[in-house]
What does this fold into?
Amino acid sequence: MPTVFVSTELANLIEPILLRHRARPDRLVQILREVQEVADFISDETAAWLAERLRISYAQVKSTRDFYAFFYRENRGRYRILFSDNITDRMAGNQALFEHMLKRLRLEPGKVSDDGLVSVDYTSCTGMCDQGPAILVNNRTITRMTPRRVDEICDLVRGKVPLSQWPAEFFVVEDNIHRADMLLGTPHEPGKAVHAAIARGRDGMLGEMKLSNLRGRGGAGFTTAVKWDACRNANGDTRYIVCNADEGEPGTFKDRVLLQSYAGRVFEGMAIAAYVVGASQGFLYLRGEYLYLLPQLEAYLAGMRSAGLLGRSIGGVAGFDFDIEIHLGAGAYVCGEETALIESLEGKAGRPRVRPPFPVTSGYMGQPTVVNNVETLSKVTEIAIHGGAWYEAIGTKQSTGTKILSVSGDCERPGLYEYAFGVRIAQVLEDCGAQEAIAVQISGASGVCLSEREFGRRIAFEDVPTAGSFMIFGKQRDMFEVARNFSHFFAHESCGFCTPCRVGTSLLKNIMDKIADGRGTQYEMNELLRLQQVLKPGSHCGLGQTAGNAVADTVQKFRPAYERRLAETDFVPAFDLDAALARARELTGRDDAAAHLGEEA
Amino acid sequence: MNAPLTPRKLRVATASLSGCFGCHMSFLDIDERLLELAALVDFDRSPITDIKHCSQRCDVALVEGGVCNAENVHVLRELRANSKMVVALGACAVNGGLPAQRNHLDVGQCLQQVYRTPDGSTAIPNDPELPLLLDKVYPINEIVRVDYFLPGCPPSGDTIWKFMTDLLTGRTPRIEHPLLKFD
Amino acid sequence: MSDISSANSFSIDGQRIAFTPGQTILEAALAAGVYIPHLCHHPELTPHGSCKLCTVVVNGRNGSACTQKAMPGIEVENNSPALNDRRRVLLQMLFVEGNHFCPGCEKSGNCQLQALAYDLEMLTPHFRHAFPARPVDTTHPDVWLDLNRCVMCELCVRASRDLDGKSVFMLAGRGAESRIVVNSPSGLLGDSELSIDDRAAHVCPVGAILPKRVGYAVPIGQRQFDAAPISRQVDYLARRHIPIVPVTEELVK
It folds into this structure.
């Protein structure tokens, strides 16, 4: 007996979504995303109604809804515009464009217009750093924003023109491949890799993987063959292959290009992994920001099914049954962490699990699960075709093969650059036309900030490991502002599970803001490092463990950028004391000298 | 360079900001040990001496109460400017204490509520003699640098005695069970 | 004393600790009388590992003692100045994150957060207070819910889900916006399935969930952590039970 009701109109929109997902509670994230697409937001009433229909608790629906940045509990308009706010977007002038749009639409940041039509806010890096500033409109990507494009969009919004009728050129996302090596430079022949793997046999293929010494491209660098072997040998009823396409690390966009133009390699890599470990089901976890890729990826999967590369008895091998389903994220960087990703796949808030057990023994639905990065899986196709020994000969001893770098920031040619491991930073800078770099942030906000004196170092697991992000800062840049941008990113993305990260990332952000306001002293410099000493060793997952790295690196390597902002006294309050009297002044009508407080000399 | 410190009495200032004077009462609760203390310290600005402003540079300022209005800010700044060490004495100075329970409310609404007259209108006093309220009640370390903290509501006489004797003999004050209390 | 063989023992700060397979480092330590600070752990509930106070160094790597299994031969660093400094900072974070006014809290003296702060000699919350606006929910006839004091340990979440079979509480939101939500149509405790007899009503280590009408039945000064610091109550920590008999009846006698 239902106790909660939504309007018939809304119910008619939502029912087909529930039907498509067979009202499965583990599809909650997908259901919420689709409900928001038709209903614009997910009210408490809608959430309560969904809870009843899915036979889960209302609190569970709220818990999931309120976790993801792209789910709204209140109306945020029929047009929900989000400006990507990575440091590279800032360098390309996103703040002026943001202000311009707010002014044109007469809006306050994050607040919906009076007529309920539109809202404008910021969001974390959307992965368009090579063609920014970028925005999302109802999660659809628009690149290369200019004042003129802002005006055009404002007119379209005010004219209530449906998004599907906006000019196609707005939505163009280019690959920008500037240096192709064996992965990006070799044409993909559909089915070739899968058949090559089948020819090698399950053990044979695993053997080649071991020989290749392929290591994960997501950042941690775990040996892929070891992961597959462990999953294959784990006890379980069903095995799963998950492709981690939650490419949320600021400055990274290589997976976007791989999925846009090399999807066959990614999906065949998944199929080969399934063949080796004996998995029957695969998931591509695609970050919500890459929604624009969904139709073409679905079409590609359909093509693979009709070509016999997915489905039952793939390649005529009895028992090699495997298919792939695409799940979308909804604005949560932490879901790039493999156990948080699995929680999200199960329809829950993306809070990282306690490890061990690791996903290879207890992953999706408690079953053995391999989680591999998009680039890692693409590499698998090369190993299937050419063999492990061939692969192992490329790169360095500990870092075999090639690595794709997502190059952005102050350079002439931002985009993708594929190199054999071992390439020096200086070489990359030369190739992309970055003449006056003072710093490079490698592997994103969570990575490492290298100064000029370190440009001789090499991209490799044994020297400078990277998930692919390569953000360049020219001499005109203020490295304090770079670190401050990252501190805001982590405070926004912390999942809230563990104390050090939940509270520490906010404290770090607040102190960076205090210094930016000219209220910092040596006291705050010490505080930054004190927080880092708790965040790094004490946090539950990589997010908190790395959240203070950019600050710590820049304090060490670009200290004057901080010091020139410091006050000369030994302490300054974090807020304006006179402003703190404003409300009382207003109510008493006083403006005498005693009704004000100056800054202390 | 290494001349021994000449024993001299330490100058101590005390003040109550937005507090209830309970910490000062607790200070007096060290009872007969007050005589012992008097041999070691001179009191400067303090409700105990009724000296209104620091007459000279002090060694220690004991500050009770949080910072809730403009006058509190002036008093705290004077003590900071004239003291080598500032000590947050008691819960309110340490974390705002019970007065800080208004911090989630709008100070304007607080005033309107408190100064409501029986006929339903409000008469918020605007006398310049009255210190203006800050938007929130702040712990003193959010306004000035603070050197030591002695929590408790109030800290007991024994706790204050332990703290003062540590301080006077040059030890870093250490407050442990059962002397350390937040209530 | 039984023999402690190397096959079933490990060391904490150089002291040999026996364990039974399956025990976590924290369980084995408490059973052996060795104190490791902790807040989100309760012996009757599944380990969680979120408060991070029990973080120890195991063979050189940081890990939560409450979730990590004891293994033969591991060397655990626990009671070191560096780890205790870090724990003090974590406590300070918890104090500034919420609104913790001990002088007006019924839990004072029985509060695990406060006891930990006493034991680690936390004299000040140090950081800038967030002073968040959090609601007090008084709608339930027998139980108060004051989220100002919540430390998000999720003990109530686990007790309600795993012991009471109700899932009255859940952690929602993200990052600094994280908060405990109540499973009821109105979001209010009074409309939820919670009963005063539920274990979830009595598991809160701080004063966020309190039974009504029993204020100060045990006077301040005679409470759990008044007698001795929490670090010297290892036996209590290892063997404590969430009261099954409603606290009200017990105390009214």
User: Anything to note?
Assistant: The mean pLDDT of chain A is 96. The first helix of chain A runs from residue 8 to 20. The first strand of chain A starts at residue 79 and ends at 84.
